[in-house]
Amino acid sequence: MDWLAQHRAVVDCYKKEVMIESSGESRVVFVGDRQVVPICVISAVEARRLMLEGCEAYLAHVIDTKKVNPTLEEIPVVRDFPEVFPDDLPVELLELKKQLEELLEKGFIQPSTSPWGAPVLFVKKKDGSMRLCVDYRQLNRVTVKNKYSLPRIDDLLDQLKGATTFSKIDLRSGYWQLRIAEKDIPKTAFRTRYGHYEFLVMPFGLTNAPAAFMALMNRTFQEYLDRFVIVFIDDILVYSKNREEHEQHLRIVLQILKEKELYAKLSKCEFWVNQVFFLACDICGGYVVYTDASKQGLGCVLMQNGKVIAYASRQLRPHESNYPTHDLELAAIVHALKIWRHYLYGEKFQIFTDHKSLKYILTQKELNLRQRRWIELLKDYDCTIDFHPGKANVVADALSRKSSSTLANLESHNHTLLLEMRSMNTTLEVDQVARLLAALQLKPDFVDQIKEAQTRDPFLLRMLERMKQGKKPNFSIRADGVIANGERVCAPDVDGLREEILREAHNAPYAMHPGTVKMYQNLRPYYWWQTMKKDVAEFVAKCMTCQQVKAEHQAPAEWKWEKITMDFVVGLPRTLRKHDAIWVIVDRLTKSAHFLPIRQGDSLDKLAELYVAEIVRLHGVPVSIVSDRDPRFTSRFWEVCKGR
């Protein structure tokens, strides 16, 4: 359309003409008459020939001319006052107004004129609803910490010995059932778009809230603690040796709650159960947490007085691999706090990370929703985050990365050190962290043994001659005199050295009998010979231990398509028929397979119809089917198949 406007095109619908001003004063008139000049489609070759002969060609297209509103930064003067034009969040503002009205109606907050004022933010709950949170980080910084001790996890577990019947009671918004002292009410003030308010009850996020509520619960159940009641903040566990005793114990606890006007949430409670999950509590403090993250996983170490208490690591979930480095490092900290909550909750401790910017995360103003949610978790703990260089943070760094080193990869790179240790009967302690090996007997003459054997290997002697002629650039002689292919030592086929290397990489106690692929991957970066892959496969196949331990214990199928396996491949690009997944069904005997294109959102009825039409029609009904716990493989799916 811009091109037509530039050339002042005039469209006459009645005459079926389009007049376009060409260069100079000439005009071009296009006459449209389907009866006289029918549409003629020509090939690209024909069009090129006509253009070479001097014919004019025009390429017309229609573009979208939607009006684009200017951004704040593009408007002079206005861009100097961004505070006047805030970004509205209608959903959050609506939720804020709703929750403020509820808190006012219940008498939990009141309008305030306090000089204090903490900001508010929203955190999304697991059910999708929004939780109103007040950022009390500045208030917590100047608060005198309450040193009220929390119960030890060891003591709690000892009390449960012999108990068979349990009931767990979770108080409804437990903190809000405790009033704030009159003089401290102004300190809880928070500011919103709809006014300035302060809490009359104890809000979430205060650093002393857990200790204060724990003291209240201990006073309430003082008479029955260590007998049949365990209390941890707002969670109450009633335990008994039999159901008769439990009836009496449960009645006592509920009566106390009634008298003290403490209210519980029925949906979060469990009664008369034989097994219950109950949040444990803390042990002694003085903890230090080291964390690290990589593109493979998260790693963390819990230490106390310079000694390791626990290790933890996990692989990244698929969506987490897209996180930026800053969020990954913060995720490692959150992972440590969640799994070691019973150690760290209520204790002052340090967190060391090799990501320097996390040191200021608690004072950072601009946070995304994910970071907001994690900061709310951090505020429950009395912790400080400090920087620890990555080179020094070796333990957590190793846990976050997959290690590929084995003893078969061990070799000496320092010939001088090797000569100095030649006369020693040296024992090295390996892997202080995991204690995988008790002791390793170092053989300093192994390199010399390889070097001497290489002089008697016909193939390597030929390679040595060709190296001297410059015909084998990949081969070289290292400083210690060993022939190498790139960085890999050439293992000669002399004196059984290759068999010794294979035996060391497979049969040694620390090697754990790897399979063919794993063993080859372990050896390949360090050793080279022409038939290495074949020799590794033959060695693993002849290993008696592997044949006994890793043997297939299931009876083989007696006929094709008698036993099948199935799974879904999802996340594929959408085809013209809107297929974005593949249903893979494999026969366990013949390994033949069907690849059925489906849509990821197909119903169970559609899948059942496809299964009957493509599998049962051709191969009949199988005896057994192996699949994962995909929600589509439910009892309803098989009922639909049976009905067809």
UniProtKB/TrEMBL annotation:
Gene3D superfamilies to which the protein is assigned, alphabetical: 1.10.340.70, 3.10.20.370, 3.30.70.270, HIV Type 1 Reverse Transcriptase, subunit A, domain 1 (3.10.10.10), Ribonuclease H-like superfamily/Ribonuclease H (3.30.420.10)
Keywords tagged on the record: Endonuclease, Hydrolase, Nuclease, Nucleotidyltransferase, Protease, RNA-directed DNA polymerase, Transferase
Organism: Sesamum latifolium
Protein name: Transposon Ty3-G Gag-Pol polyprotein
Keyword RNA-binding tagged: no
Segments forming domain Reverse transcriptase: 104-302
Keyword Disulfide bond attributed: no
InterPro entries: DNA/RNA_pol_sf, Integrase_cat-core, Integrase_H2C2, Retrovirus_Pol_polyprotein, Rev_trsase/Diguanyl_cyclase, RNaseH-like_sf, RNaseH_sf, RT_dom
Domain of life from the UniProt record: Eukaryota
Record-linked Pfam families: Integrase_H2C2, RT_RNaseH, RVT_1
Residue ranges occupied by any Integrase catalytic domain in the UniProt entry: 552-644
GO MF annotations in UniProt: endonuclease activity; nucleic acid binding; peptidase activity; RNA-directed DNA polymerase activity
Coiled coil: none
GO biological-process terms attached to the record: DNA integration; proteolysis
